[in-house]
From TrEMBL:
<keyword id="KW-0408">Iron</keyword>
<keyword id="KW-0503">Monooxygenase</keyword>
<dbReference type="InterPro" id="IPR050665">
    <property type="entry name" value="Cytochrome_P450_Monooxygen"/>
</dbReference>
<dbReference type="Pfam" id="PF00067">
    <property type="entry name" value="p450"/>
</dbReference>
<feature type="transmembrane region" description="Helical">
    <location>
        <begin position="17"/>
        <end position="40"/>
    </location>
</feature>
<dbReference type="GO" id="GO:0016705">
    <property type="term" value="F:oxidoreductase activity, acting on paired donors, with incorporation or reduction of molecular oxygen"/>
</dbReference>
<dbReference type="GO" id="GO:0010268">
    <property type="term" value="P:brassinosteroid homeostasis"/>
</dbReference>
<dbReference type="InterPro" id="IPR001128">
    <property type="entry name" value="Cyt_P450"/>
</dbReference>
<keyword id="KW-0812">Transmembrane</keyword>
<dbReference type="InterPro" id="IPR002401">
    <property type="entry name" value="Cyt_P450_E_grp-I"/>
</dbReference>
<dbReference type="GO" id="GO:0016131">
    <property type="term" value="P:brassinosteroid metabolic process"/>
</dbReference>
<protein>
    <submittedName>
        <fullName>Uncharacterized protein</fullName>
    </submittedName>
</protein>
<keyword id="KW-0472">Membrane</keyword>
<keyword id="KW-0560">Oxidoreductase</keyword>
<dbReference type="GO" id="GO:0005506">
    <property type="term" value="F:iron ion binding"/>
</dbReference>
<dbReference type="InterPro" id="IPR036396">
    <property type="entry name" value="Cyt_P450_sf"/>
</dbReference>
<dbReference type="GO" id="GO:0004497">
    <property type="term" value="F:monooxygenase activity"/>
</dbReference>
Length: 528
């Protein structure tokens, strides 16, 4: 009503032309901006990329290749692979597979109106990850981590440098040794639980994936929070629920954008975030008080992190402001987010693959029993495990938990002879590089742990092409932690059980954030 009165008043005054003119101009300007963003800019960028010899898909208004890639993923997901087939790349990422076939190992496609350059060449991938061409942003992670963990993984520039300097000492191998009792206590709990659930014939069938996720969540709770790990467990439950909710959004919509709407699911996600923050704030404050009173525990991640934070110095060696309590909270949450799912899917695939290849399962068990008998594995023994390490590497090659790493240009940059403007996504596919026969040989899709017998650098043909933990300055901070945990868990499982695939197992590796078995990991366990 009031608006109508305003317009009729304006219409009857000499100002009317000016008001309508301004409104019209504003509308036209907005429409022009939208057109520039959704049509002219992508078309211009496409011409620029093609003019430099880069091949790729033609831009489709607004959605780019999202619909097509979504459709192909759905179709591939509906058809499981044959058992024991490790040629999984076309099944897991059919769109990229087609792009490589049609346009080569360096090509572009469209993430909506944003151009995405995909790199499947290991030398170029290493150069990008090492910042050889300059610094990139990690915007996707920042968006995802908003409700989970805005820790070091989502920072850029000076903030990233500072946090990484503070975090690194806590993940040093010498410090990880202190955490070994926590690793073995959690693995022992799992073995006891499985043993007690066996049928009277000493056999049972189960989906091992959820139990292995509980294991890796427990390991983080204990290693991060020491004696307060029961509170840590509550955080693990809440963070697991948060991840489940995020995964359901990604499965439904392909991208997590919907996360910001005021829906019931999103309100619950905000509630979880508040509760996790409040538990962590309480635990951290108690710990800081204890440190002030001279009673500090330094053999858990939180203690090590706070100690390293207090000792923090800047690049010139001067003592400087470390992290705030809020920063420490976000880093603790990140340990769950970055370390739980990744390590649990590594363990899950290892059990699946060793069920498919019993000869390697026997060799691994022989090695474990030879080193430890039935006793708890110790640090020195774990570092002497050769067969188990080769197996874990081969599983990480064939089934990398993080299949792609994303970056974005924030200014004009030249990569491998191609000039990219600001705002281009750059995607590096560990999955395709790990499955490339030009690099690994004609047996690329076979499970052959012996290719790692002389270490990682000799495993592939003249090129270093093994990236499960990323590369360069942003390489995974927890890789030693994850490998030590995986060796401990596999050793203790192999000491107690033989395992094979259950008849209900369906082989369908599926990338929802991590590469996981779409229908679970149904395995038959038998007590030894
Ligand atoms: C098998 C297990 C794991 C795999 C495959 C894995 C993989 C990765 C990869 C690929 C990256 C780099 C991503 C990029 O460059 O964009 C990364 C970063 C990171 N990971 Fe892991 N990770 C694992 C376990 C862990 C564990 C156990 C923790 C900690 C408890 C952890 C903490 C982190 C952190 C904090 C970063 C960010 C580092 C930075 O940006 O400076 N990860 N991880």
């Amino acid at each position: 009503m009031a608006l109508g009165a305003l317009f009729s008043a304006a219409a009857s005054t000499p100002w009317s032309f000016l008001v309508y003119g301004l409104l019209g101009g504003l509308l036209l300007w907005q429409a022009g901006r939208l057109l520039e963003l959704l049509w002219w800019r992508p078309r211009r960028l496409e011409r620029e990329l093609r003019a430099q010899g880069l091949r790729g898909t033609s831009y489709r208004f607004l959605t780019g290749d999202l619909k097509e890639s979504f459709r192909m993923n759905k179709e591939a997901g509906s058809k499981p692979l044959p058992l024991r087939c490790h040629d999984i790349a076309a099944h897991v990422a059919p769109f990229v597979h087609n792009a490589i076939r049609e346009h080569g190992k360096l090509s572009f496609s469209w993430f909506g109106p944003i151009p995405k350059v995909t790199i499947n060449d290991p030398d170029l991938a290493r150069d990008v990850l090492s910042n050889k061409f300059g610094h990139f942003e990690k915007p996707q992670f920042r968006a995802l981590s908003k409700l989970f963990a805005e820790g070091v993984a989502s920072h850029e520039g000076e903030k990233w440098v500072k946090h990484r300097r503070i975090l690194n000492p806590a993940f040093h191998l010498e410090k990880l040794k202190l955490m070994l009792p926590a690793f073995s206590a959690c693995c022992e709990e799992l073995v006891v639980r499985w043993t007690q659930s066996l049928g009277s014939n000493g056999v049972m069938e189960l989906d091992v994936a959820p139990d292995l996720q509980t294991l890796t969540g427990d390991v983080i709770s204990r290693t991060a929070f020491g004696s307060s790990y029961l509170e840590g467990r509550r955080i693990f439950e809440l963070q697991s629920e948060q991840i489940e909710r995020l995964m359901s959004i990604i499965q439904k919509f392909g991208i997590p954008g919907y996360m910001y709407l005021p829906t019931k699911n999103n309100r619950r996600m905000r509630q979880i975030r508040t509760e996790v923050n409040s538990i962590l704030r309480g635990m951290i404050s108690k710990r800081i008080e204890a440190i002030k009173e001279g009673d500090s525990t330094k053999d858990d991640l939180l203690g090590l992190l706070l100690e390293s934070n207090i000792r923090h110095t800047n690049e010139n060696g001067e003592s400087s402001m470390g992290m705030t309590i809020d920063d420490v909270i976000e880093e603790c949450k990140l340990f769950y987010f970055a370390g739980m799912e990744t390590t649990s899917v590594l363990l899950t695939w290892t059990m699946v693959v060793l069920s498919m290849h019993p000869e390697w399962q026997d060799r691994a068990r022989e090695e474990v029993l030879g080193l430890f008998g039935k006793s708890k594995p110790g640090y020195d023994g774990l570092s002497h495990l050769k067969i188990v390490t080769m197996i874990l590497y081969e599983v990480l090659r064939l089934y990398p938990p993080a299949t792609v790493f994303s970056r974005k240009t924030y200014k004009k940059m030249e990569i491998g002879g191609v000039t990219l403007p600001a705002g281009v996504m750059v995607e590096l596919s560990a999955l395709f590089i790990h499955h490339d026969p030009d690099i690994w040989g004609s047996d690329v899709h076979d499970f052959r742990p012996e290719r790692f017998a002389e270490g990682i650098s000799k495993a592939s043909k003249d090129k270093l092409a093994f990236f499960p933990f990323g590369w360069g300055p942003r390489i995974c901070i927890g890789q030693n932690f994850a490998l030590l945990e995986a060796k401990m868990a596999m050793s203790m499982i192999l000491q107690s059980f033989e395992f094979e695939l259950a008849p209900t197992y369906t082989h369908a590796p599926h990338p929802v954030m991590m590469l996981r078995p779409m229908h679970g990991a149904h395995i038959k366990l038998r007590a030894i």
